[in-house]
TrEMBL record, chain A:
Residues 1-24 are annotated as: Disordered. This is CO/xanthine dehydrogenase Mo-binding subunit. It comes from Kitasatospora paracochleata. Residues 1-18 have a biased composition (Low complexity). It comes from the Bacteria. Residues 35-148 form the Aldehyde oxidase/xanthine dehydrogenase a/b hammerhead domain. Pfam families: Ald_Xan_dh_C, MoCoBD_1, MoCoBD_2. Transmembrane segments: none annotated.
UniProtKB/TrEMBL annotation, chain B:
Keywords: FAD, Flavoprotein, Oxidoreductase. Residues 1-178 form the FAD-binding PCMH-type domain. The lineage of its organism: Bacteria, Bacillati, Actinomycetota, Actinomycetes, Kitasatosporales. InterPro entries: CO_DH_flav_C_dom_sf, Diverse_Substr_Oxidored, FAD-bd_PCMH, FAD-bd_PCMH-like_sf, FAD-bd_PCMH_sub1, FAD-bd_PCMH_sub2, Mopterin_DH_FAD-bd. The keyword Ribosomal protein does not apply. Gene3D superfamilies: 3.30.465.10, CO dehydrogenase flavoprotein, C-terminal domain, Uridine Diphospho-n-acetylenolpyruvylglucosamine Reductase, domain 2. Pfam families: FAD_binding_5 (PF00941). This is FAD binding domain-containing protein.
Length: 770, 298
């Protein structure tokens, strides 16, 4: 656990540049990225490199009768073709092809006997030209025996097992309180969430270089260098220290990045050929390869008393895990624990399942599980408000959770739960202007410029939503990170394997060291897997665990630096402060530059941060499963063309529980990014399948929000109530706005149209008033 | 780049006149013309097209502009970009085509994508196509030693398709000096492919309304009966009079339904009921057609 030491106020009175925690320095990668000179994995190059390509299944479910690679090997320029036969077999009862996976090792790197989803990799080729590699991969002859795909998650329960592990990935019941309890008011709803894809700007790309010791070095935009190293090594039958992952620039990650099949195949090709191999996936392959958000079906019944106080929440939640387990178990835990939302409810009864289907595998994406539940519980709260005739904000106020209240899992929310403060901030925030106040030519109507929008058919709607998401790994996962800090001369270096996936960790680490050590020049070392482990960039964990490790290492360095000086002056270290590159004593007698105190020495320290442990949810869904929770409230304002069903989100105003704003500008950026993604899910983004086949795996077919689709995003308040056990009291900020935004947009569309809006993304026919 | 380029060792020719271009086409078997390459490179990158040679049309300056003929016709170069067609001088001439060009993709694409490419690709979602159909435009197709004139609709339906070795050079469009509207439903506020579009032009000289529906079928559809019917509902003599109602609102709505019913027929088959994809499309087309005529007569 991190000490929440109050640090000496280190920021100089008039900083020339933003300095230390609480300021908003520019991210170091901002300029290179804007100028297009930031090196991504797809830009890598090595002398004599070969090009890799994959062969993927055109079927969602089929038995592989035979794979004949001879035609591919005969193509001039082809250096290697690898299949599952080149990988170690899986342990008994698992599929062959080196099965691996983040929680359960159930996913073959290359399919051996059965393909379970459209685009599942079967073979990989290395050739001296990318075209040659692609053509050769296409010439591999695979004989399939087609199997009936299981594409309806509700049918998965009784369908023949599509994997040795069966079709049920997890069943998680939650029971708390009196099952017989009833309320005067009962509202029910069925809610559906589609398949959102992370659709990162940069598709998967990487370079593998064989090492003289028989190992391999992988240059990838991984967000979990050690996890990926270990899994890759295991799949290749190598010791982990024979595989080195070097993290290149990450071109966008709101989920896990490169999938295991990609990196293991790449490594295997390099080992086979003894030459560097580079591979970049096409956009279509990218959609096929990485995991997407769990499609969900949620059936809810809320009981409340006449005043709208919740009496009982009953829910059935079904997540479509797709072909492989991935993190479905974890997503399900979040969906169940947060099924009632940030409200107090004495009686909660939930049954939730994650099932295996022949649909594309689902995995990690901002607020997995919590997002789906949020759409449902917030829709229910709106129904309740309508039934008892109160304002949507009022129903939320009457039920709002506060610090100390229990979750339905029995865990007390000991971290700040400032739900009331968030609602107040939204109430006080002014509404955006009505378009009637603007000249007609300036209106951006639903449908966009040049669209068919008609002002006479446009209705405005305002909707609210509140939601929550846990941060850090849950249910007993060991959370830990390690960091090293070095000071020499007038600058410091941070070595920490926490990947800056765009979330801004590098900037934060710099600010932490500035604050603790008073030096302004802080260099953040590039990340590779030879460094100590920091864990994945996911679940909003690095601010806490890696930020905590950096803080502790910096404090240790500080102590080493000040100890001799304090001893000289016969005072305790606590009476010395470092600010503006200078060490001073409380009485002002001492004033010494940091560089002088160092006397040419280098000081190093390495430290770890390990938050308090959690425990798995039991057979009744009870247990202290989470380290901490972040809350967010949002108001969305939409314009709907009620004839065409076209929706434009005009404004989203956000009040968020951040614990402490360590970098306000960066927090705003993260909120904007998450709201944009949430708006995308609410209105546009859906990776569709038909009979298990991907229908729209392209950026034309899969519609991302453009600048014109992204609303004005305003921060009503960043509520700073410190979480005393968290590093610097700060909470993770990136996931919770993505969890809440879709629910808020749906509520606003409901308000504009009077229609029920039970699914996401909202289709034109869901918003068109017949 | 030594390895990266996909067109390594393939011929690229850059003629500067139509004659040179058609000769090059005739002389190079398997050669494919390319203008803005916004469709072509997508096909190449996806592996659907591997042209043996490319004939770039970008240097044929005469095809990048337009001229007038017989006072009543504009002759548009196939190399006109969407961005160029969206400029005010062009928009004053053929407003519906300018409207369509304005919505044909993001600015980067419209800066290079051309009218000729849009026609030759003949995608169901090609935004200029319903406008050209409503305008009853014709295309000039040139090959070494011969030239022929074909209605765009024949080109698109495959009745008289573009033949190998042929270059689309000019598009003839009547100048109608009357309101024209192009409306597109696209599914997002930013640039998107049409889910349905309607082009509508008034031809006051012939007291006619011409309309075409895009993206509802592989080619633009003309609801000829609806056009003829609604032309009779319009008070043509009141045109230009301040505040005159040119059409009864009920007729506007009926026109929308008429167009939608004609272009997205209700087959009565199971699965085509209310809420089906066809019913949704019909509804969208109906709203677009009603709004288009309403705006043209405003
Ligand atoms: C991101 C993106 C968004 C898009 N959005 C839209 C949209 O909203 N609406 C829309 O309509 N289109 C859209 N397009 C498609 C495309 O931009 C248009 O169809 C454009 O008009 C094509 O013109 P081009 O000059 O780029 O054609 P090219 O790609 O150069 O050529 C396309 C085809 O036409 C042939 N060709 C070109 N010129 C001639 C000629 N003179 N004679 C004979 N054959 C010829 C080529 O051989 C090729 O087969 C989009 C494209 C992209 C990449």
């Amino acid at each position: 656990m991190t000490s929440a030491t109050e640090l000496p106020a280190a920021a100089p009175a008039e900083p020339s540049e933003p300095f230390g925690l609480g300021s908003s320095p520019l991210r170091t990668d901002a300029l290179p990225k804007a100028l297009g000179i930031y090196p991504y994995a797809a830009d890598l190059w090595a002398e004599g490199l070969l090009w890799g390509a994959m062969l993927r299944s055109p079927h969602p479910h089929a038995r592989i009768v035979s794979v004949d690679t001879s035609a591919a090997l005969a193509v001039p320029g082809v250096h290697a073709v690898v299949t599952a036969a080149d990988l170690p077999p899986g342990p008994d009862g698992t599929p062959d092809g080196a099965p691996a996976g983040p929680i359960v090792a159930d996913r073959p790197v290359l399919a051996a006997d059965v393909v379970r989803h459209h685009g599942e990799p079967i073979a990989a080729v290395a050739a001296d030209h990318p075209d040659t590699a692609r053509l050769a991969a296409a010439s591999i002859v695979v004989e399939y025996e087609l199997l009936e795909p299981v594409t309806d998650p509700e049918a998965a329960f009784n369908a023949p097992p599509i994997h040795p592990d069966g079709n049920l990935l997890r069943h998680l019941p939650l029971r708390t309180g009196d099952p017989e309890a009833t309320g005067e008011i009962v509202v029910e709803g069925l809610y559906q969430v589609g398949r959102q894809d992370p659709a990162p700007i940069g598709a998967e790309a990487g370079l593998a270089v064989p090492r003289p010791d028989g190992g391999v070095e992988l240059h990838l935009s991984t967000t979990d260098p050690h996890g990926d190293r270990d899994r890759t090594a295991a799949c290749l039958g190598l010791e982990p220290d024979r595989v080195r992952l070097v993290v290149t620039g990450v071109p966008g990650a709101t989920s896990d990045r490169e999938d295991l099949s990609f990196q293991v195949s790449l490594a295997l090709l390099a080992l086979r050929t003894g030459r560097p191999v580079k591979m970049t996936l096409t956009r279509e392959e990218s959609f096929q390869a990485h995991t997407s958000r769990h499609p969900a079906l949620l059936r809810y019944r809320h009981h409340a008393d006449a005043e709208g106080k919740l009496v009982k929440v009953e829910a059935q939640i079904l997540l479509d895990g797709g072909a492989y387990a991935d993190v479905s178990a974890e997503a399900l835990a979040a969906a169940v624990a947060f099924s009632a939302g940030p409200y107090v409810c004495p009686n909660v009864f939930v049954d939730a399942w994650a099932v295996r289907t022949n649909n594309p595998p689902s995995g990690r994406m901002r607020g997995e599980g919590a997002l789906q539940a949020c759409f449902a519980h917030e829709s229910q709260m709106d129904q309740l408000a309508a039934r008892i005739g109160v304002d949507p904000m009022e129903i939320r106020r009457r039920n709002a959770m506060a610090t100390g209240d229990p979750l339905p899992t029995g865990q007390a929310v000991t971290c700040p739960a400032p739900v009331d403060a968030l609602l107040d901030a939204l109430t006080e925030s002014p509404l955006p202007a009505l378009p009637v106040d603007d000249p007609e030519a300036d209106w951006l109507l639903p449908g966009g410029p040049g669209g068919a929008g008609d002002p006479a058919a446009v209705r405005r709607g305002i909707g609210y939503a509140v939601g929550m998401v846990h941060m850090l790994g849950a249910e007993g996962e060991d959370e830990v990170s390690t960091a090293t800090v070095r000071v020499s001369g007038d600058h410091a270096t941070v070595i920490c394997a926490a990947v800056d996936s765009g979330q801004g960790f590098a900037t934060l680490a710099r600010q932490i060291v500035q604050t603790v050590l008073g030096v302004s020049e802080v260099y953040i070392a590039p990340v590779d897997s030879d460094q100590s482990e920091a864990g994945p960039s996911a679940r909003g964990r690095h601010t806490w665990v890696s930020g905590g490790a950096v803080e502790r290492a910096a404090l240790m360095v500080r102590h080493q630096m000040l100890q001799p000086i304090a001893a000289d002056f016969g005072m305790s270290v606590e009476l010395l402060t470092i600010a503006d590159g200078k060490i001073s004593s409380y009485d002002g007698v001492l004033g010494m530059p940091v560089s002088e105190a160092l006397e040419g020495r280098e000081l190093w320290a390495t430290a770890q941060c390990r938050p308090h442990p959690t425990e798995p949810l039991d057979e009744n869904g009870q247990g202290d499963a989470f380290v901490s929770i972040a809350f967010c409230a949002m108001r969305a304002v939409v314009d709907v063309d009620i004839e065409l069903g076209a929706v434009r989100v005009v404004d989203v105003t956000v009040a968020q529980d951040v614990g402490r704003a360590l970098n306000p500008r960066q927090i705003e950026d993260r909120i904007e990014a998450a709201v944009a993604q949430g708006v995308g899910l609410a209105l546009l983004e859906d990776l569709r399948t038909e009979g298990g086949l991907l229908v729209n795996p392209s950026l034309t077919g899969y519609r991302l929000p453009t600048a014109l689709d992204t609303p004005d995003i305003r921060i009503a308040s960043l509520v700073e109530e410190r979480d005393v056990v968290a590093t610097f009291g700060a909470k993770a900020v990136s996931a919770v706005p993505a969890v809440v935004a879709p629910a808020a947009v749906a509520a606003a569309v409901r308000a504009a149209t009077g229609l029920p809006v039970g699914r996401l993304p909202i289709q034109p026919e869901d918003a068109a008033v017949a | 780049m030594e390895h990266g380029g996909i067109l390594v060792n393939r011929t690229i020719m850059l003629p500067t006149s139509v004659d040179e271009a058609v000769e090059a086409l005739a002389a190079t078997p398997g050669a494919v013309p390319v203008a803005g390459a916004t469709d072509l490179m997508e096909a190449v990158n996806a592996g659907r097209l591997r042209p043996a040679a490319l004939i770039g049309l970008g240097r044929i300056t005469e095809l990048r502009g337009w001229r007038y003929e017989d006072g009543g016709t504009a002759v548009l170069g196939a190399g006109l970009t969407h961005a160029r067609m969206d400029r005010p001088d062009f928009a004053a001439l053929i407003p519906a085509l300018a409207d369509a060009a304005r919505t044909a993709g993001p600015p980067q694409v419209r800066n290079v994508g051309t009218l000729g490419g849009n026609i030759a690709t003949a995608a169901p979602t090609g935004d200029t196509l319903p406008v050209l159909a409503a305008l009853e435009a014709t295309a000039t197709l040139a090959r070494a030693g011969s030239v022929r004139e074909v209605p765009i609709s024949h080109l698109l339906t495959g009745l008289d398709p573009l033949r190998p070795g042929e270059l689309l050079t000019w598009v003839r469009v009547p100048l109608l000096h009357a309101p024209q509207v192009f409306l597109k439903a696209g599914g997002r506020s930013g640039p998107a492919r049409a889910t349905a579009s309607v082009a509508l032009v008034l031809d006051p000289a012939r007291r006619a309304v011409r309309c075409a529906v895009g993206a509802a079928a592989p080619v633009p559809l003309r609801p000829l009966e609806a056009e003829a019917w609604v032309a009779g509902c319009i008070d043509w003599d009141a045109r230009g009079e301040e505040g005159a109602a040119l059409i009864d609102p009920a007729a506007l709505a009926a026109f929308g339904e008429y167009v939608a019913g004609a272009c997205v027929p209700d087959t009565g088959l199971p699965g085509e009921g209310p809420g089906s994809a066809a019913a949704r499309l019909r509804r969208t087309v109906s709203v677009l057609a009603r709004r288009a005529l309403g705006r043209a007569l405003k």
